[in-house]
Structures are given as structure tokens and as C-alpha cells.
Amino acid sequence: MENVVELKNVTKKLKGFTVRNIDLQVKKGFVTGFIGANGAGKSTTIKMMMNLLRPDEGEVKLFGLDYKKHEKEIKERIGFVYDGNVFFEGLNLKDIKRIVAPAYKKWDDAQFYQYIEQFELPLNKAIKTFSKGMQMKASLAIALSHQAELIIMDEPTAGLDPIFRRELLDLLQEIMIDGNRTIFFSTHITTDLDRIADYIAFIQSGELLFTQSIHDVAENYALVKGGMELLDRDTEKAFVDIHRAPTGFEALTDNVSAVKEMFGDSVVIERASLEDIMYYLKGGIHSV
Hints:
- One of its GO terms (molecular function) is ATP binding.
- Residues 5-230 form the ABC transporter domain.
- There is one protein chain.
- By secondary structure, the protein is α/β, with parallel strands linked by helices.
- The protein folds into two domains: 3-213, P-loop containing nucleotide triphosphate hydrolases (Rossmann fold, 3-Layer(aba) Sandwich); 221-287, Alpha-Beta Plaits (2-Layer Sandwich).
- It is 35% helix and 29% strand.
- It contains ten helices and 14 strands.
- The strands form three sheets. Strands 6-7-8-3-9-10 form a six-stranded mixed β-sheet, sandwiched between helices.
- Helix 4 runs antiparallel to helix 5 (132-145).
């Protein structure tokens, strides 16, 4: 399976924070959700993908190419959708098209106007009058109009109302149908990814904890609930982290089959959401 993005042993030291030894592959034709708490290193990693930051160590390749020799070619093939306005506020969409279109060999005017109509965006109003959702739609329309093969989205749904978030997710599913595009979707709102992601990459405190298919995440991780009398030094090894209460325990496991073998029918096993996994893995790492 072809990788559109490859980060190998990538480290970047910033003031008071380090992204370290990141090994990340983004597979062609799929949606990869990049999750982690605010400040975990998501935006720093994306900036290195975009060549806005250079890694101190390691290698960043997109489409099998590196930025040192192929920056223009790589950026022709990327679309970036940010969580706010990235254009000069006084410009309208006609102005922006006139400036942006000549920079891309594959720019398609007809497609641009088609998306503007589909997204119900005004051509002649200044970007500063757009809502946050409209600004994001404008960024997406531009990315799609130059035939971007990789669309990188940094917290695109943050601050959007639930209805617009649902519309956006439906739209992303729609543009993925032909299999020619790849989406890398960074967010701390994990419920969005439960609907559209094929793969999940989880970063915490600057370290990539795992990259797994959404199917494997669902198979491997689960919440386990049971009585406190079931816990001892040996059984606790089956869990990533445990929360204890007078009424019993709730714990996260990354080995469901081992829990079933160990406890049988004496515990309740439930599906763990991405939010559950983020919450418990944070506790587990800090308690080790």
C-alpha cells in the first residue's frame, strides 16, 4: 500500500517542548485521523509535513519526494485547510482566485466555481465577513480546485456548530469516493473521526503512541468494568490504566482476548471510544 506521507525518526525541539522520534505513514486513498490533546504536538508535526518547520533530525517525504529538491512539486499536490482564515481579510473570493490560480498547473476554474456554488459562498464579499465555517469551506474549495491529492486539515471542526460539522464530514466522505485523494485530519474532537477515519495516529506529549486502522483500534481497545475483588498484582497487568471507585473499577485494555481469558464472564467489556482511549492512555503513561 502506497504511503503519501512518510516521517522517519523525526525530532523537532522547540522552546519547552519536543516532538521526538516520530515514525508516521499516511496511506494513499484513506482518511487518517491525527489525534491528541491540545499541545500534544499535532500542529508541529503538520508544520514539518508542510515544510513550515524543518526537523532537527529525521526525514520527511511526501509522495516519495523530499522538500530539498522537490518543494514546488510537492506543494502543487497538497491542499491545506486550517481552522481559521489564512487569506488577507480585505480580499473576496474572486480576488483570491486571481492570485492563487496562476500558482498551480492543475487549477480548474470550472471546478472552483462549482464548489463555490455547492458551498453557497459569496464571490464578492470580503473574507473578513465570512463565518469560521465559511472560511474553512473557502480553503477547501481552493484545495479541491487545484486537484490536491493530499488534503491536510488542522483542527478544521474546532469552534464549528454541530450541524456544520456534520455537513463537513459528509462532504469529506463525498470527495473520497473516487479513491484519488488522501486526507490527513488533525483534531482533538475525536467523535468526528469515529465517522470518517480509516486510520488513527495518536500523539501525546510529543511522542507518537500508535498508528492503527480504525478496525484494529476497535478490536484491540476496550473498557472493562468489574468488582474491586478481581484486581491483584497479576490481573492489573491486563490493563493500560485503571480507575478505582467504591463500587468497582473501570479500566482500559489494549488486549481484549487476554482480558476475556483472564476474567471470563466476571467483567463487563464495552467498546472504547477514541476519547476513552485518549483519556486512559494519558493516565496510563503518567502512572508508569
